[in-house]
Amino acid sequence: MTTQLTSAPPSAVSSRKARRRPEDSYSARGTRPGFGWALPATLFFALFALAPLVMVAVLSFMSWNGLGSPQFVGMDNWKRILDDPVMIKSIWLTLLLTALGVVIQTPLSIVLGVWAAGHQRNRAVLSAIYFIPLLLSSTAVSVLWRALLDPNFGIPARMTWLFGDGNLFGEQASAIGVLAFVSTWQFTPFHTLIYQGAARAIPPVLYQAAEIDGAGRYRQFFHITLPQLRNSIVTSMILMIVGGLTTFETVLILTQGGPGTDTTISAYYMYQKAFKGFDFGAGSAIALCLVVAATVVSLVVVRVSGYDKMRSDMEGVS
């Protein structure tokens, strides 16, 4: 018996070529897109990020009041800020507010994000309302809550049975609590959006298999959902840490570093040194410390969590 081999019609061949996915061509070549694709973004980053950072680093070794020519003073600015008790206090306050942001916002945004990824009734409407703070600037949010919490005509003045004299900005504990609350109100929707997208990407077959094995909703959450959200949790925490170390507008508008220096965080102290005291050398040194601290903490979180070992089969493919 002879077997007759027939070739596929030209139309079938062309349709198969048309159905080839972009990643097939990348895997066939075994290469990534060329550097030319990243060149515009690289130039933009170098011009508006690296160049100012280098200028700040140089200025941290200079004495300059904003007029005339900067004078080189070596390590004098660094010695002054490291011996400054207000600077040391501002570092601890910055770390405290950052830690409060991570501890409060992470579990809250995970729960809300997983809920928003479901199919509950009116979920879309409630999610849209909840995400409204995400559309506002930090300045607008701070002005809003400054008016709402004003001790003379705001909410505390009308609820003295709860807030006492109503001056939430008069003591360190209550002022820090206000800063943590306002930051949570504004930025939790952003991190909720991250977890919502990550939760929707979890394969439903995992939950179906868990239901067959008799796992309830809570066991599914702790044994399926949370492990699958690991990389999103690391990403969200890094954004929280960097944002907490560099926050500025909220303190400027709500407390102005008060009472006294009880809420003077490092970013606000940098502003006071540079733009109020006209000591741009010391201000640049503080700014460089914040950049280094945010970078180091982010790298430590990435390293400890194993996030740097994450790989994707779709890398470079859109």
UniProtKB/TrEMBL annotation:
- What is this entry's stated membrane topology? Multi-pass membrane protein
Q: Which organism is it from?
A: Streptomyces argyrophylli
Keyword Membrane attributed: yes
Query: Could you confirm whether the keyword Manganese appears in this record?
Result: no
Name the major location. membrane
The opening ranks of the lineage are: Bacteria, Bacillati, Actinomycetota, Actinomycetes, Kitasatosporales
Against PANTHER family, the record matches this protein to:
ABC TRANSPORTER PERMEASE PROTEIN (PTHR30193), INNER MEMBRANE ABC TRANSPORTER PERMEASE PROTEIN YCJO (PTHR30193:SF37)
Q: What is this protein called?
A: Sugar ABC transporter permease
What the entry lists under Pfam families is as follows: BPD_transp_1
Q: Which CDD domains match?
A: TM_PBP2
The membrane spanning regions, by residue number, are 37-62, 91-116, 128-148, 168-187, 233-254, 280-302
Location comes to: Cell membrane
Q: Where is the composition biased (Polar residues)?
A: 1-14
UniProt KW keywords: Cell membrane, Membrane, Transmembrane, Transmembrane helix, Transport
Task: Say which domain of life the source belongs to.
Answer: Bacteria
Q: Please give the residue ranges the record annotates as the region Disordered.
A: 1-28
Q: Which family does it belong to?
A: Belongs to the binding-protein-dependent transport system permease family.
The ABC transmembrane type-1 domain covers 91-301
Q: Name one GO cellular component term.
A: plasma membrane
According to its UniProt entry, one GO biological process term is: transmembrane transport
